[in-house]
Amino acid sequence: MSTTDLTGRVALVTGGARGLGAGAAEALAGAGARVMVADVLTEAGERTAARLEGAAFVELDVTDDARWAAAVAHTVQTLGRLDVVVNNAGIEVTQLIADAEPDAHRAMFDVNLLGTLLGTKHAFRAMRPGGAAGNGGTVINLASVAATIAFPAIAGYSATKSGVDRLTRVAAAESGKLGYGVRVNCLFPGLVATDMGMKLAVETAGLGLFTDPQDAVAQVVGLTPSGRLAEVSDIADAVVFLASDASRFVNGTGLAVDGGMGS
Question: Less Cβ around it within 10 Å: N or C end of the chain?
Fold first, then answer.
């Protein structure tokens, strides 16, 4: 049996309706896991879940503590257990620091950082001994190459993703110290040509930082030793790795999947 075989395991993926989240859900299902797709985008989330064998959908606002508790309980009740939580849900605000809008940034901080904290909280409560699942497991948090480089117009976003990295390491330490049996790691994806990634290219060009969106993309590629943007499958395969026994002694760290951009 392959060490990346996830047969018999259950994963909950936030922001799973589209983009990187949908890619992660599909890859986890392809490795044998049953997946709970979680998102605020109900119709898109239901469509994604319908494509995956044994998958289900739950509506989840990751900033809401009570909704998190309900989503985890629903996952355990519906799919029988919980072994993997992928905290992928996120939003990105493109603004120069001199023009930063507090309300937009507060919303981003809530989704990207508080949402990840709450996801880790409820994963711990379910997976630790005596929890609703109680078999240990793994938490995978989506940070970003933005946490490791200085890219203009995304100061707030970069700060949230740096926070995800620190949160991950503290969470792993707490889990180990308290005997939860839950590994916690994060990923640093490079720029992917999803709706969010292309939005960044358009908006940074609109701010005059690049001549046009194509120039923005070219500049990113130029900073990447692998010579291309990341693809959804690049990140999704890394999620499967961290969810599987192939990474059984990987804990409390960040895995760069950025083609060398942040090195």
Answer: N
Its pTM stands at 0.97
- Identify the CATH number of the domain in which residue 56 sits: 3.40.50.720
User: Is residue 119 domain-shared with residue 69, that is, in the same domain?
Assistant: yes
pLDDT cut 90: percent of the chain above it: 97
Residue 198 and residue 186 share a domain: no
pLDDT digits (tens, 9 = 90+) for 192-224: 989 899 999 999 999 999 999 999 999 999 999
Residues 95 and 133 in one domain: yes
Cβ-count burial of 155 within 10 angstroms (0-12 exposed, 13-18 middle, 19+ buried)?
middle
Q: Residue 39 and residue 140: Cα distance in Å, rounded?
A: 16
180 flagged as catalytic: no
Q: Which tens digits make up the pLDDT trace of 114-148?
A: 999 999 999 999 999 999 999 999 999 999 999 99
The structure tokens listed for 237 are 């395969």
